[in-house]
Amino acid sequence: MTTGERTGGRPVGRVMAQVAMVMNLDKCIGCHTCSVTCKQAWTNRSGVEYAWFNNVETRPGQGYPRTYQDQERWRGGWVRTPRGRLVPRAGGRLKRLATIFANPVMPSIHDYYEPWTYDYDTLLNAPLGDDFPVASPRSALTGEPMQVTWSANWDDDLGGGPELARHDPVVKKLGDKVRFSFEETFMFYLPRICEHCLNPSCVATCPSGALYKRAEDGIVLVDQDRCRGWRMCVTGCPYKKIYFNHKTGKAEKCTFCYPRVEVGMPTVCSETCVGRLRYLGVVLYDADRVGEAAAVEDERELYRAQLDVFLDPDDPAVRAAARRDGIPDRWVESASRSPVYALAKRFRVALPLHPEYRTLPMVWYVPPLSPVVDTLTSTGHDGEDAGNLFGAIDALRIPVEYLAELFTAGDTEPVRLVLRRLAAMRSHMRRINLGQERDGSIAEGVGMTGRDIEDMYRLLALAKYDERYVIPTAYGVDDSDRGVIDEIGCSLDFEGGPGMGGMGGVPFGEASGRPDAASVETFHALRDRQSGEEPAAGRGRVNLLNWDGNGRPAGLFPPRGGDHDTDGGGGPSRPV
Asked: 4Fe-4S ferredoxin-type domain: which residues (predicted)?
C-alpha cells in the first residue's frame, strides 16, 4: 500500500463494491405491486407457494414470518462474545452439527402461512340450484378445504390496531411507550427483501457452503448444486428471507435480480414500484473493516460503525486503492453518482434495518415523516415553518422510539436528525416555491447547506430513472460483449440426457419438459427495448413484466373489434 492511499487519516484496506438499495418509506402506499411482480418473476412455481422474496409489512405488526424479529426465539444473526468475537446466535459448529438432521429452530408453515387457492371450478361449473355457488379456499399444498387464518400481509387488515400490533416484538420491547388508543394509533408500510449483508450470518451457518456472497457485486446467492437442504441458513438469517423449497429440497432466496443487474437494469421490484421509492446504486467499502465494525461493543454504535466502512468514491486515495484491487473504472464512476451513497452517507437520511443483528445490512430505509403538517395547522400554527416542525418531532404520531428500535438499535438521536432534515427540506423548498428569500438558518440547524438540501430534494422528490438507478454492467458484460455471449445452458441438457429438464429429474408432472433458457443476451435485448424509441410490437416475446407500454405486442391483448388479424397481435388495421 502506498502512503498516499489514505482516507480520513486511516490507510485504505481492500476495496470492494456492493450493489445496494434504499427505500423511501414516506412514499410507500402498501400496494404490494413489488411483491406481486417479484412473485411472478421468481417464485411462481410449485414448492415455493408460501415464499415471498419481497413482501410489504404493516408496522406495527407481527411481520412475515410471524415475529421474525424475536431473535431470542428464532436465533438469527450474530452475538458478540465477552472476548469481542462474533459467533452465530444459532450456535457454533458443534451445536449445528448436533442438530443437522433435525433443526429445531425454524418457523413452521403456520408462521409463514399455508398458501391457498380457490375452488373456481365449482364456482364456474356448478349445476343450477337454489344456492349460489362460491369459490371456497383450498390448500395449495394438500388440495383440501381450509380456513384462512393468516398470510404474508395479514397485518394489513388491522394495521395499527391492538389485536395484532401488540404482538409486534418491537412494541413488546418498548412497553408503555407505544399505546393503541384511537387517538394515538399509527401505521406505516415496510417493504422487505434480502438485505445482502456485508457480514451475512446465513453464509456462516450453512454447513455445505452453498450460500456465498459474490465478490464482484456483493449479492448473496444459493448454489443449488451444493445445497443439501440442511436449512441452517433459515435459522441463521435474522430477517428470515431464506425459504426452503419442499419440492426440490433446496434453499432459495432473493437474488437481487442479478441477471438484470448484470446488464445495468434495476430489480423487478424497483422497476415496477408505483411510488418510485426504491433507489439502486454501488457503494465502495473497506472489506478489512467489516469484521471490526460488526463487532463493536455497543449496539448503538453499529450504525455509525457501518457508515465508517463506506468509502468516498471521490477521494483520490480511494480511487487509487480501487484501481489497485481491480474495481473497474466504470464501477467507481457509478459509485460516485450512487443515490444509495448520497442518501446513506452524504445526506445521512437512510438507515439500516436492525443493525443490532450485526450483519451490516445493505438495504437501507428513509424513515417516514408522520403527516404532522395538518396537525400543526389545525392548532393555528404554520404547519411547514421550520421551527414548528422541529419542535413537533418528538410529538409525531409515529413514535421516534419505535423507529429507533427498527433502524438504529434503539438510539433515537440519528432518527431525530433524519426527521429534522426531512422537515428542514420541506420548509426550505416551500420558501423557494413561494418565491421567498432563502433562509440559511434552516439548513444550518440540521448541519447541512442550502445546496445539500436542494440536492437531497431533487433525489427524493424529482429524481429521474437514470438518477434513481445507477447500475454499471457486470465486470465481463459490456456493449462489446453482445456478439459473443451465448445462451447459458447445462452441458448435460441434451436429448435424452439428465440435463435441467423437470424438477429434480422427474420426467413427468407439472414441471416436466425443457425449461426456457436463461440468457444474458435476453436481458441485453430487454434493456435495449425498454430504453428504445420503437414500439414493442413485433420484437419478440413480450409479457406484462417487460412491456414498455409501446404498441400492441402479439398475443398480449385480445384483438379489437374490426382488426383484420386473427391472432390477437399487431396494431389495429385502422384508427380506433
From this structure: 19-47, 185-216, 218-247
Q: Which helix (H) or strand (E) holds 318?
A: helix 316-324
Helix (H) or strand (E) holding 427: helix 412-433
Overall fold of domain 6-15+276-468: nitrate reductase domain fold (1.10.3650)
The number of beta carbons lying within 10 Å of the beta carbon of residue 281 is 26
Q: What is the distance between the terminal CA atoms of the chain, rounded to a whole angstrom?
A: 69
Q: What's the rounded Cα separation, in Å, for the pair 59 and 354?
A: 14
Cβ–Cβ < 8 Å for 207, 228: yes
- Contacts from 10-14 at CB under 8 Å and sequence distance 24+? 12/286, 12/311, 12/317, 12/318, 12/321, 13/286, 13/287, 13/288, 13/289, 13/321, 14/286, 14/287, 14/288, 14/325
Residues 247, 238: contact at Cβ < 8 Å?
A: no
Q: Please name which of 271, 283, 409, 390 lies closest in space to residue 351, comparing C-alpha atoms.
A: 409
With CA atoms as reference, report the closest residue to 62 among 183, 153, 184. 153
Can you tell me the distance from the alpha carbon of 173 to that of 268, in angstroms, rounded to the nearest whole number?
A: 35
What sign has the CA pseudo-torsion 227, 45, 516, 497? Answer: positive
**Phi, psi (5° rounding) for residue 61?**
180, 175
> Domain coordinates of the chain in residue numbers?
6-15+276-468, 481-506+515-550
Q: At residue 261, does pLDDT exceed 50?
A: yes
Q: Is 342 helix (H, G, I), strand (E, B) or coil?
A: helix
Q: How confident is the model at residue 153 (pLDDT cuts 50, 70, 90)?
A: confident
The pLDDT assigned to 92 comes to 85
Rounded-to-integer distance, Cα 254 and Cα 236, Å: 16
Contact 493, 499 (CB under 8 A): yes
Higher pLDDT residue, 104 or 37? 37
Cα–Cα distance for residue pair 234/241, rounded to 1 Å? 7
Contact 208, 236 (CB under 8 A): no
With beta carbons less than 8 A apart as the criterion, state whether 573 and 562 touch. Answer: yes
Number of H helices, E strands in the chain: 24, 16
Q: Strand pairing partners for 508?
A: none
Q: Cα torsion at 465, 468, 474, 479 (round to 10°)?
A: 30
DSSP state of 480: G
pLDDT at 510 over 50: no
Using alpha carbons only, give the angle 359, 365, 371 rounded to the nearest 5 degrees: 145
23 beta partners: 278, 365
3-state class (DSSP) for residue 413: helix
Query: Count of CB atoms within 10 A of residue 439's CB?
Result: 14
Q: What H or E segment, with its residue span, contains residue 191?
A: strand 188-192
User: What does the CA dihedral 8, 13, 14, 17 come to, rounded to 10 degrees?
Assistant: -20
Q: How much is the average pLDDT of 491-508? A: 39
